[in-house]
């Protein structure tokens, strides 16, 4: 049984259709990598899957509260320490795995540092540690390795691999090889036809894009 699936999905950015007819099913233990050139619609698809914007057409299926989304932005609060940031997210998600997440993402030496004073790569590690504290099975990630050095990419690949081994799943837009045994979805096949472009901006799009 799949943890996440998309059926005949069409998505738009700022009212303009970018992808249509997208379908996939992601089973427990599996990773799916989204591929395609800049601007094809990877972020738009991930935002739709994460519930941040409605599809133009089709549907996304996942259990309630199954999906954790790691966007381009790290989603960290600069005035809070590393530990406080994760404690905040743990309280939001009703989990208590902050210390484990700090250890796993190699943040122990930085635990008391204000997030504003982290380097870009350290901030990214903190942003990704948030996935661990969500306790959610489906990780949806948009270019998660941006700013990470080679060792951190490897570390994060290991974290995702462990997540999959524990029965989780991952949907990842990435140009980097994380060393996972992943399926690949080439979004070039789903480019919206020009005739469908220039669509009407929905009220939701007006408000949230
Ligand atoms: N806020 C916005 N307003 C209008 N158009 C946008 C906006 N954000 C993105 N777009 C357009 O929507 C299309 C899809 O963008 P999206 O960010 O989903 O692509 P992507 O595949 O994730 O790109 P990249 O690999 O560069 O991150 C692009 O043509 C882009 O120019």
UniProtKB/TrEMBL annotation:
Domain ABC transporter: 4-206
Transferase in keyword set: no
InterPro entries reported for this sequence: AAA+_ATPase, ABC_transporter-like_ATP-bd, ABC_transporter-like_CS, ABC_transptr_haem_export_CcmA, P-loop_NTPase
Keywords from the named record: ATP-binding, Cytochrome c-type biogenesis, Membrane, Nucleotide-binding, Translocase, Transport
Gene3D superfamilies, A to Z: P-loop containing nucleotide triphosphate hydrolases
Domain of life: Bacteria
Keyword ATP-binding included in the entry's annotation: yes
Protein name from the UniProt record: Heme ABC exporter ATP-binding protein CcmA
The organism of origin for this protein: Tabrizicola oligotrophica
Gene (UniProt): ccmA
